[in-house]
Design goal:
With 258 residues, the protein is mainly beta. It has one domain. The chain has two helices and 14 strands. The chain has a 14-stranded antiparallel β-sheet with strand order 8-7-6-5-4-3-2-1-14-13-12-11-10-9, with helices on one face. The N and C termini lie far apart (43 Å).
Length: 258
């Protein structure tokens, strides 16, 4: 065996060991455990709080390895307070949602929902209610934000997906609107602006006219987001970005800015 062959074999064995330790997927995705973004939250022109978007851990859901993601927005202004959290458990092998929770605490209304999602049987269950039909390769509100980061995002194109876990909310449309240089507290980014539309009453409803600014690089980090809500215009602006601490590099490119 030549030295070159030994070197290649050593690298292959190291990568195999790392994969077994992290249980990360074999396909390339621009995120991983330890990734954490923080945001300034504004309601209209006023600073209203803080937001975070992170992949907290690798969990096991019904024998499947899953990324556990948490998206939280907390703050308030002029007597209005909100502490809204969405958590998703995403199958690392298929990118399908396995579990989804919403914990919305807002002035005048609180809402907690827990969904177990079964992609293999195409059904979902809300709390203790009877199971309901779902779809193939289901996604929820939170996991869609990670899924969008894996889509090519061609300017001017509208992508249509029948993957929202509640069939009556399909199709989900992703409109790729434009390129834009976006300045936020974390720095200035070249971005691609998309409009996600889900048939729901949430931040991605058609009435909210939501827009998301993703960095135009291999990391596809969420630089900013805005949505028109009944209480005013909600805006998130990136203040810091921490790259994954557990990941398998699949493509080359610049690192996530500090």
């Amino acid at each position: 065996m030549t030295p070159g062959m030994v070197s290649v074999l050593a690298v292959a064995m190291a990568l195999t060991t790392l994969r077994s330790i992290t249980s990360q997927p074999t396909q390339g995705v621009p995120f991983g455990v330890g990734e954490r973004f923080t945001y300034d939250v504004k309601l209209g022109p006023f600073k209203a709080g803080r937001g975070t978007m992170e992949v907290t851990s690798l969990d096991t859901v019904r024998g499947r390895t899953a990324w556990h993601t948490v998206f939280r927005v907390k703050g308030g202004i002029l007597g209005y307070k909100a502490d809204n959290t969405m958590e998703s458990w995403i199958d690392t092998a298929t990118m399908a949602s396995l579990r989804f929770t919403q914990d919305f605490e807002q002035t005048g209304s609180d809402r907690k929902r827990h969904y177990e999602i079964f992609p293999d049987r195409a059904v979902y269950q809300e709390g203790e209610k009877p199971e309901q039909p779902s779809v193939a390769d289901p996604l929820d509100d939170a996991s869609f934000m990670y899924f969008i980061r894996t889509v090519p995002l061609e300017i001017g194109r509208t992508y249509t997906f029948e993957r929202y876990f509640r069939p009556d909310r399909n199709p989900v449309r992703i409109k790729v609107l434009r390129r834009e240089e976006k300045k936020v507290p974390a720095g200035t980014y070249q971005t691609i602006v998309v409009q996600p539309i889900i048939k729901s009453k949430g931040i991605f409803s058609e009435n909210s006219k939501a827009e998301i600014w993703f960095s135009e690089d291999v990391n596809r980090i969420m630089v900013a987001m805005k949505a028109d809500l009944p209480v005013g215009s909600l805006n998130l602006f990136l203040t810091s970005a921490r790259p994954p601490t557990l990941s398998i590099p699949a493509v080359s490119g610049s690192p996530v800015p500090p």
